[in-house]
Design goal:
Radius of gyration: 43 Å
CATH architecture of the domain at 38-354: 6 Propeller
Strand content: 25-35%
Shape: elongated
Largest sheet: 7 strands, antiparallel
Length: 612
């Protein structure tokens, strides 16, 4: 049935059942954890088209609205105002357990008269075509909210209340009244069954409702409301309480105790298509309540935008789990909102968690006042996560050594790793670099005494140390020639372009295990040859006077730059070979064979630099 919702303009009413009219034992419902930094995080969706398989299968809802939790049965009851029925789903799985249709409600009798809703005496004389069926339809066509009274013995004398408001003229004659109604369901053989009903005054529309346990100031019991107001109501006497202001656009109520209540609010957007979760203003908030007024609890406001929620309705709390229905009517039925569950009128399930704000924390791990040492530390710290541990390596300027601190998952530890009598008495530990290689921790750092590079590594059992480079020459350089690099695809001949000196592990077991020194070796091979500038064929055409001659560009004289080092010639437009390392031996020229003749005649030859 195509229906139009009319949540705008109706007065919010929250009604409290009189304590004298209805015995209330409190029913301490669903206390939540009082987290210092509360936050709602999306856990899952429960689809309603169809409901997950339970006792019943392949049953669709149409427009989920009010909800309430019944602990005795671990069930959540859900009102559907378009299919004119209520559903019972499993609070754990979401599986459908049972349903009560509008036809079953029509078997209940009115309080005080024992009349069915179809009784002829209740027909509207101003509607000539009125019938008992129409009268009952108008009282069951807008199930909005559900309230649970635990009674004195939950599971025995507990009660459900279901409200029907003013909504939908579909299927009714023009000008037909809304006939808002409250229905009472009691246990019959352990199952809730509609038993009584009360007709609310025309104009009432109990969209949101909840049961307030006893123990606080003001009345206990049943509260209902809508938009910006609430009032009290006594089912036994059908009496309305005084109307009070409530949080704007109230659509859901769930009390956690006599003084605290969670409320969902959502601005009405009737018939508005194209809305998304990013534009949703649906919010869950906690308030304190004294029977007459609501006061927001600081830090307990949870916007639901960007969680998939578009137009929130009621909520039901199960401990720290929040079930919130979405009443948006214009989904395509295929949206999943980041899940694998189609979300046409779903129920969103959120977990209440503690989410401390992300902030920086500071502590002094070593040094004065720490109880570890009174040394001074500085110079090139390195940090490295290794598995579940966190390692720091840094220089000890008091002892001129390398210090190691690490978090083992329980506490911080510290040790002098190198220097100050351990392995060496040299001044070490500055300019630290730390990496993982082959699953092992590798450290490179300075030995300031010997102007060399130290290497330390953890092989899984112990720390190992070596002087990696620089011990044999000035300014951290070795004093012997470095051999040319070998091409992995060539023979043993050296490259024409000398390589820069590198240090690397020379054993496949590196790092750890049996390790050969990574120091560079002295070359006994002759120094590499120097490329000769290429010869070019003479042009038969006369060169223009304005065209400059191309000459080799040199530095210094006789092929030797002013700094005394040897470098290759450079011709504009040709690539330049990599610099040759300084050597007292003059470089050799490299020659190539002349090219062969072609079918068109002899081709002038040009020399090029090749390995020789």
């Amino acid at each position: 049935m195509n229906r139009v919702r009319t949540r705008l303009g109706a007065a919010l009413a929250v009604v409290a059942l009189s304590a004298s009219a209805l015995a209330v034992t409190g029913g301490a419902a669903h206390a939540v954890t009082n987290f210092p930094n509360p936050k709602l995080t999306l856990s899952k969706l429960i689809p309603s088209r169809p409901w997950p398989t339970g006792t019943l299968t392949s049953v669709n809802a149409n427009d989920v609205e009010g909800m309430v939790y019944v602990p005795t049965n671990n069930a959540i009851w859900v009102a559907d105002d378009n299919r004119d029925r209520i559903f019972e789903i499993d609070a754990t799985t979401g599986g459908l357990k049972s349903q009560i249709t509008g036809a079953a409600f029509q078997t209940a009798t009115q309080v005080g008269t024992n009349k069915l809703c179809s009784d002829p005496s209740l027909l509207d004389s101003s509607i000539p075509t009125d019938t008992g069926a129409l009268e009952c339809l108008s009282r069951t066509d807008d199930f909005e909210s559900i309230v649970y009274d635990p009674g004195t013995t939950p599971g025995v004398n507990d009660v459900l209340y279901v409200t029907s408001g003013g909504c939908c003229p579909g299927g009714l004659p023009a000008g037909y009244k809304d006939n808002p109604t409250v229905w009472k369901l009691t246990r019959t053989g352990g199952t809730f069954t509609p038993s009584q009903w009360q007709a609310l005054p025309e104009g009432e529309d109990p969209t949101a409702a909840g049961w307030r346990p006893s123990g606080g100031s003001g009345a206990s019991g049943f509260y209902y409301g809508k938009d910006n107001f609430y009032r009290s109501y006594d089912f036994a006497t059908n009496g309305l309480g005084t109307m009070h202001s409530a949080p704007s656009y109230l659509v859901g109520i769930d009390f956690t105790d006599a003084s605290h209540v969670f409320i969902t609010t959502s601005t009405p957007h009737p018939n508005q298509t194209g809305r998304t979760t990013a534009s949703s203003d649906s919010i869950v908030k906690q308030y304190t309540f004294d029977g007459t007024s609501f006061t927001a609890v600081p830090g307990w406001s949870f916007p639901l935008k960007n969680t998939g929620m578009i137009d929130a309705r009621d909520l039901a709390l199960v401990g720290d789990t929040f079930f919130v229905s979405d009443g948006y009517d214009f989904r395509t039925g295929t949206e999943t909102n980041g899940t694998t569950t189609p979300s046409d009128h779903p129920i969103y399930v959120y977990n209440l968690v503690d989410a401390p704000p992300v902030t920086w924390h500071y502590e002094t791990l070593n040094g004065t006042g720490t109880g570890v040492s009174n040394d001074h530390f500085a110079n090139g710290n390195a940090l490295l996560p290794v598995g579940a541990q966190f390692h720091g390596f840094y220089g000890n300027t008091t002892r001129a050594s390398l210090t190691h601190s690490w978090w083992d998952g329980t506490r911080w530890n510290a040790e002098n790793l190198d220097g100050a009598g351990r392995n060496t008495n040299d001044a070490v530990g500055t300019n630290v670099t730390a990496i993982q290689y082959g699953g092992q921790v590798q450290l490179l750092y300075t030995d300031a005494t010997r102007h060399s590079l130290r290497h330390a590594w953890w092989d899984g059992t112990r720390w190992n140390f070596e002087t990696l480079d620089g011990a044999g020459g000035a300014n951290g350089r070795i004093g012997t020639p470095v051999p040319a690099a070998r091409s992995p695809s060539s023979s043993s001949a050296p490259r024409s372009t000398p390589s820069t000196r590198t240090t690397r592990p020379t054993s496949s077991a590196m790092p750890g295990g049996t390790v050969r020194s990574g120091r560079s070796r002295t070359s006994t091979a002759p120094p590499p040859c120097r490329p000769r500038p290429s010869s070019r064929p003479r042009s038969r055409a006369r060169r223009s006077m304005s065209s400059p001659r191309r000459r080799p560009v040199r530095s210094g004289t006789a092929g030797t730059p002013a700094d005394g080092t040897t470098r290759p010639w450079t011709v504009p437009g040709e690539s330049r070979a990599a610099p040759v390392t300084t050597s007292a031996t003059s470089p050799r020229w490299c020659r190539s064979a002349r090219s062969s003749t072609s079918s068109t005649g002899t081709t002038p030859t040009r020399r090029s630099a090749t390995p020789g």
